[in-house]
Amino acid sequence: MFCNKEANTAEIMIDADYPGGNIVVDKIEGDTVTLHQDLRDTGRWWFYWNFRVTGAAGRTLTFYFTSKKSLFGTLGPAVSKDDGLTWSWLGTETVKNNSFSYKFPADAKCARFAFSLPYQESDLEHFLARHKGNNYLTVHELCKTRKHRTVERIHLGRLDGQPNYRVLITCRHHACESTASYVVEGMMEAILGMNEDGKWFRENVEVLVVPFMDKDGVEDGDQGKDRKPRDHCRDYVGKSLYPSVRMLRTFVPEWSTGRLSIAFDFHCPFIRDNTIYQVGSSHENIRVEQKKFGGILESVDDRTLPYKVSDDLPFGTSWNKASNYKGGKSFFQWAAELTEIRLSSAFEIPYAQAGKSTITPDTARAFGADFVRAMRKYFEQLPKQ
Fold first, then answer.
1. Mean pLDDT along residues 228-255
2. Most C-beta atoms within 10 A of its C-beta, which of 25, 96, 129, 205?
3. What burial class does residue 50 get, using C-beta atoms within 10 Å of its C-beta: 0-12 exposed, 13-18 middle, 19+ buried?
4. Contact present, 137 and 158 (Cβ < 8 Å)
């Protein structure tokens, strides 16, 4: 926690002492706060930050970031007025260069500000509590993290051991990529839903979800991207450094029993990217299936957020090159080499906007439901087993 009594701002306190918090405060002078994101063990510049302000009721503060690069996405900062329960975008009109200003309501006890829409273990717990007792959902422990946190292993759909298909979904290999978590939650909600898509999944598919591959990073408020000496999404080669990756590589082949057909990993792209896209595989057979699934997803009626196959990133272009993996192997590259797999892919979900559409928890969850509908159509086009 940081405060500055000498500047007559003793009542203003800024901290990141809560799950997902990340900030370093340099100084407070009058109504101006100078600060920067905490990179910790990240190997390069990255842009995640998340902090809380108390004692500023009725004041207008300006928060100036010392980073040489912009730390704001396409909709400016996100704000929560209820201790992180709900979030909304402040908008770019609050941003000037690498600072933003906020007028605290006269009755404001505290407010949180973040680069993006956070999603923490507490959010997952709220989801699980809503579905407590559901016979189509079970929660197990995949492993303990290095800091002794539980990495959840969630099973949904047909759980009697005899599904026609199995699907593996992972998220948060990079701790800061929180928007993707809302899409994954929307997928889980749809699988448990009462419509035809949910019913079909519960009759035909067992889905395994690991919502926090870097659980420690998520809760500690780490960047997670390019973590030294290797981040979680480059850990699928040789001896894995991290317990979650190591255990997933052991558990999945045993769990599959020849029925694992699809593996999806969800991420967020670079700071101001505003396109949902699929990361192209280096394997020709997988690329064919990626294109097929992408076409189905693009054709889903009344899709909440825009997606086009033409926006996908082919292997060998932009950052999607072998040299970018620096001797490591990503989740979807590893999954593509499992003997029974048909489709393995990584999807990038922007932090704030997809095209001109605003990403909120609700629109991201709705896109997750669209994703489930597309998976059902994909499965229904496969040869009968």
1. 97
2. 205
3. buried
4. no
If you write DSSP's letter for every residue of 233-261 in order, what string do you get? GGB-SSS-SSHHHHHHHHHHHHHHTT-EE
**Rounded CA separation 27/40 (Å):** 19
Q: At CA 318, angle to CA 313 and CA 322, rounded to 5?
A: 90
Q: How many residues are given for the chain?
A: 385
In the predicted structure, residue 205 carries a pLDDT above the cut 70: yes
Contacts of 204 (CB under 8 A, 6+ apart): 157, 158, 163, 164, 165, 379
Q: Which pair of structure tokens corresponds to residue 273?
A: 């990217």
CA contacts within 13 A on the Cβ side of 56: 26
Does the CA dihedral 114-352-376-175 come out positive or negative? negative
Position 326: which residue type?
K
Q: How many CA atoms lie within 13 A of 373 on its CB side?
A: 19
Q: What CA–CA distance (Å, rounded) separates 56 from 111?
A: 9
Which stretches of the chain are DSSP H helices?
A: 121-130, 179-191, 196-204, 215-220, 243-256, 284-299, 331-336, 361-380
Instruction: Provide the token pair at 37.
Output: 């994101």
How many CB atoms within 10 Å of residue 270? Answer: 13
Q: Which of 221, 250, 225 is nearest to 236 (CA)?
A: 250
In DSSP terms, 272 is beta-bridged to none
Distance from C-alpha of 155 to C-alpha of 152, rounded to nearest angstrom: 10
CA distances from 110 to 11, 76, 181 (A): 12, 19, 25
User: How confident is the model over 32-49, as pLDDT tens digits?
Assistant: 999 999 999 998 999 999
